[in-house]
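If you are new to this repository, start here. Below is one unmodified record pulled from the training split, so you can see the exact layout before writing a loader.
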Amino acid sequence: QVQLVESGGGLVQPGGSLRLSCAASGVTPRIYVMKWYRQAPGNEREWVASITIGGRTTNYADSVKGRFTITSDSAKNTMYLQMNSLKPEETAKYFCNLEPYWGQGTQVTVSS
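And here is the target side for that same chain:
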C-alpha cells in the first residue's frame, strides 16, 4: 500500500517562499511520476507540477513556471516543491499524487 505524506505548509507573506515535501512509502517501481496539485476553497483541484522519479523529467503549470521548482530524492522516495514569489491567490491546500494515491494535503496560506 502506497502512502504519501506532505509537509512544509504554513503561513507566508506575499513574495515569500516555502518548501513542501512529500514522502512516499510502499513504492516498488524504480521509475514513476509524482505530481503536486493544489485546491483552494470552492475551486477545482489543479495540477501544479510533476516529476519523473528516476528520470528527472519535470513539467510545470504555466502559472508557476519560473517561480516553483520540483525536485526529488529517489533514494528517499521524496519529492519537493520549492515555491518562491508566492501570491495570495496561491493560498490552497497542496496535495501530493502518485496515481492512484493521494496524500492528505498541506495548507499553504499566503497573506500579509
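Two things worth knowing about this chain: The chain has a mean pLDDT of 94. The chain has no helices and eleven strands.
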